[in-house]
Structures are given as structure tokens and as C-alpha cells.
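Q: How would the C-alpha cells look for this protein?
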Amino acid sequence: MGYFIMKKIALITDGWKRYVTYAWVEGYRRFASVLRQNCPVGSICMRYGGDEFVCVVPDLDIRKLHQLEQNIQHALAELSSASHFSFPIEASIGSVIADDPVFSLNDYINLADQKMYQTKKAHKAARGATP
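A: Here is the predicted structure in C-alpha cell form.
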């Protein structure tokens, strides 16, 4: 079983309250659509709070997990380039393979969350932003 957490990153200015609300709602809708289209049947994907999503995907090994991450990133890049938004639709993904019954679902989510923040920090550093 694989767990991963994704955090949608969107840069939006505060001055356009109505547009921002529409953009967030539409962005989430499109983001969720990418998850539905790319996660295998039997997966459970949900908004985890704020702009984070958790997906529980059964029967994944490390190779399939990395392929799923790449597929989602590719789909988001295509969505972002085709969208009318003035900001990118991107995700930082943290993933783990749940193969030890000693750990709880919450433990695995926390591990995936830590990896996601490491990935996010690396993306910011690559863009020259401060973490």
C-alpha cells in the first residue's frame, strides 16, 4: 500500500478576492480531476486540510509509486499550461510505502507529509525562493 500527500502550490495576489475564491475552487476541482484520472481503481484520495491532499493507493511497489508521481506531475504540467490561470498548478509530493504493520495510518501520513515538505523546500530552492 502506498500513501502520498500532495500540496498544491499556487501564487495568488490578495487584491482579487472574488477571482481568488473562484481560482482556488476551480484549481481544487481540476487538481482532484487529475488525481481521479491517474490514481488506480480502489484508491482513496481526499483533501487533508488547507491545500493538502492524501491518497491511499493499494498494491503499490516503489516502482509503481514513482511512476504514479511522475504521471500526476506530467498531468498537472499539462493542465497548468492549458489553463487560463495566471499562476501554475503544481504539486509537491511526499510518498511512502506502507509495508510495516507496526506503523499506523497516521504514522504513514506523517512520514509522507515530512517527505512532501522536503520536496517543497527543494522546489523553492531550485526556483531561488526562500523556504
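The beta strands are 2-9, 44-49, 52-57, 90-97.

The chain is about 50% helix and 20% strand.

Upvote if useful.
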